[in-house]
Amino acid sequence: MSSSTLTFYTNPMSRGQIARWALHEAGAEYDQQIIEYADEMKSDKYLAINPMGKVPAIVHNGKTVTECAAICAYLADAFPEADLAPKPEERADYYRWLFFAAGPIEQAVLDRNFGLSPTAEQERTAGYGSYDRAMDVLDQMLQSNDYVCGKRFTMADVYVGSQVDWGLQFQSFPERNSFRAYAERLRAREKYQEAKAIDAALIAES
């Protein structure tokens, strides 16, 4: 385990849950800073960390990383002893699906939640095409693979898996067998349960 200094800025009721799970899978020791919504998240002190005024963020050895997909990929590289970065033959799938989830999938889900749906003409310029198409593509991949890179769990599964897990929980994903089976595999992981228990306790205290 790395002895380097890492500070984790989060709120338990946020995407910070994804980053916490990634930190635990990586075996990273970290100092936790809970950032409250409203004034604290938009304070000058926190905006110096993330000018977007969003959580999560990490500061590792003086460098700041924001955006959950980037945090996941960074931690896999920064803590190689966890063996969660892609092997050479896994890189294509690892990066393809990590960024597919961060781009088309997230945008498709958000637009649907906001009541937005591109017309047939607009689908040509929308990065995700349509909600149904994006879900079909991810479904097809998971019908053939236990994890993003096949049989082996990698850090890409923390991010892609969180999208699926939350999507099923909040009913922003369709109920499909491949999604349900994938989420169940991830929920059985010790580090998933460990990280979720911390955030659940923090939420209960708030």
Task: Tell me what you see in this structure.
Helices cover 51% and strands 8% of the residues. It is an alpha+beta fold and 206 residues long. It folds into 2 domains: 6-83, Glutaredoxin (3-Layer(aba) Sandwich), CATH 3.40.30; 88-191, Glutathione S-transferase Yfyf (Class Pi), Chain A, domain 2 (Up-down Bundle). A 4-stranded mixed β-sheet has the order 2-1-3-4, with helices on one face. Helix 3 runs antiparallel to helix 6 (155-169). The longest helix is centred in the middle third of the chain and has 23 residues, at 91-113.
Features of the shown structure:
206 residues, Glutathione S-transferase Yfyf (Class Pi), Chain A, domain 2, alpha+beta, 2 domains, single chain, Glutaredoxin
Structure in a nutshell:
This protein has 206 residues and is an alpha+beta fold. It is 51% helix and 8% strand. Strand 1, helix 1 and strand 2 form a beta-alpha-beta unit.
Low-confidence stretches: none
Structural class: alpha+beta
Supply the number of helical segments: 8
What distance separates the N and C termini? Answer: 31 Å
What is the level 1 CATH name of the largest domain?
Mainly Alpha
Shape: globular
Radius of gyration: 17 Å
Beta-strand percentage range: 5-15%
- Sketch the topology as an H/E string, one letter per element: EHEHEEHHHHHH
Count of strand segments: 4
What strand line-up does the widest sheet have? 2-1-3-4
Helix content: 40-55%
| Domain unit count | 2
Mean residue pLDDT: 96
CATH architecture label name of the largest domain: Up-down Bundle
* CATH-derived topology of the largest domain: Glutathione S-transferase Yfyf (Class Pi), Chain A, domain 2
For the largest beta-sheet, the strand count, sense and barrel status come to: 4 strands, mixed
